[in-house]
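Design review, sub-item: ligand-bound model
Attendees: FS, YL, KQ
YL presented the inputs for the S-adenosylmethionine complex:
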Amino acid sequence: MLTINLVTLFPEWFAAPLGSSILGRAAAAGLARYRLVQLRDYTHDRHRTVDDTPYGGGAGMVLKPEPFFEALEELRAEPPIVLLSARGCPFRHADAVRFSVGQELTLLCGHYKDVDQRVADREGVEEVSVGDFVLSGGEFAALCLMDAVVRLLPGALGDHESAASDSHYDGLLSPPSYTRPPEYRGQAVPEVLLSGDHARIAEWRRAQAEALTRARRPDLWARYDGEHGSPGTP
Ligand SMILES: C[S@@+](CC[C@H](N)C(=O)[O-])C[C@H]1O[C@@H](n2cnc3c(N)ncnc32)[C@H](O)[C@@H]1O
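KQ shared the predicted structure:
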């Protein structure tokens, strides 16, 4: 079982997403459990203050280091400990795999202007970003990361094949999918998918995956091509 600790100012925010869909089913099946930790519980003043003004001046409030350090100590958290951060290293499928094979994962959610840098610099903490944009809080990012991790746990998906044929699993974007009807508003499903010829279908899907990856994600394509070599490349 994978235990995921979530340190946040808004634990109540997670009630619906952690109880629904894959995350909820994985918990019900005993594959994962979620421990929600209120950051304010690790303050010691009357106002339960978690933030303060930034040294050097400037707008916004910075989350103080002490509550994060004390929460991690009480949890006895071991790596991987992830601070969700817009300046972090990009979260990739390989990280989801890495986190999914462990026993425990701890996620630290920032908020407001920033988190005191000493949290990121604490031993065992890694800063992770879910994309090149800024969210208002780490909660959305944590949920995104958790979903990517939990769906990889054996038994979390009804049909593991559906993870293995998803984008990024083998370094490529996935080919497009179609279902009935065969024609809708003048748009026809590619003939090959209706042919019943499994070899041709597999070949078409591979070609689509490669073409999409090359066109939309030259960064992924360069890595994939470097590892596998393009068909036809000497
Ligand atoms: C308003 S943001 C702070 C942004 C920070 N001042 C910066 O420019 O990098 C508040 C919190 O949201 C979370 N966050 C925002 N964007 C994120 C992203 N792309 N990936 C992961 N977490 C993010 C982090 O926990 C961050 O501390």
